[in-house]
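We were asked to recover a plausible sequence for a given structure. The inputs and outputs are reproduced exactly as logged, with field labels preserved.

PROBLEM: sequence recovery
POSITIONS: 225
GIVEN STRUCTURE:
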């Protein structure tokens, strides 16, 4: 695994890629086949519980250190912070810090009408627009990125959040890591569920909230084993 604190002209682009790709902040608890583990303790020996394929191995972990100065200059890179009990008792049970464009599984009967499935992926920042979530911009912390063999939905304290998704291979170039091509091959990943744009996600969540529906990120079914 790599922990990176790049310096120089390419740092802004590198951090932008970290914010665009799903990244987890410190303290986020992920479900492994042996129980919950803080994201900063994970390594490639762990297997993570996924929604679609049971417990799966981690191919690679990247860790990216964001400095206080980074977040002061680029507050848009700051994580979405989901506070304990935001979506119900113990959902989440701890602070969950996600990069703004991390993909969160959202369920809604209305999504079935518009997108042909009741499960879609929405950016974490969309939820921050609707819920009392914090966006800190003045502290140093480390983003952790988790790469699986395919795009997986990972179980995180009552929610499902996507692993790293390289649907566009140009994104690998923006990360600046040619070794990823050797790991992934040259075939773009397929998203685990349809991905909504920010505008589509906001419209869906707005309509659900207007009708008194709960924000549909909580897991109400049995997770895969």
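RECOVERED SEQUENCE:
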């Amino acid at each position: 695994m790599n922990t990176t604190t790049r310096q120089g002209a390419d740092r802004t682009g590198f951090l932008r890629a970290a914010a665009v790709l799903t990244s987890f902040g410190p303290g986020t608890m992920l479900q492994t086949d042996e129980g919950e583990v803080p994201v900063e303790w994970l390594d490639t020996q762990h297997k993570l519980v996924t929604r679609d394929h049971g417990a799966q191995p981690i191919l690679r972990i990247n860790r990216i250190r964001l400095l206080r100065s980074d977040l002061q200059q680029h507050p848009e890179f700051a994580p979405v912070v989901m506070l304990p009990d935001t979506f119900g008792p113990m959902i989440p049970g701890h602070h969950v810090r996600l990069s703004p464009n991390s993909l969160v599984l959202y369920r809604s009967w209305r999504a079935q009408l518009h997108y042909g499935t009741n499960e879609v992926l929405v950016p974490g920042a969309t939820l921050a627009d609707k819920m009392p979530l914090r966006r800190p911009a003045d502290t140093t912390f480390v983003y952790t990125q988790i790469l699986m063999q395919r795009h997986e939905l990972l179980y995180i304290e009552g929610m499902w959040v996507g692993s790293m998704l390289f649907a566009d291979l140009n994104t690998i170039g923006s990360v600046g890591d040619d070794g990823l091509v050797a790991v992934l091959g040259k075939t773009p990943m397929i998203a685990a569920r349809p991905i909504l744009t920010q505008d589509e996600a906001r419209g869906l969540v707005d309509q659900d909230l207007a009708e008194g529906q709960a924000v549909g990120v909580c897991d109400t079914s049995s997770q895969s084993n």
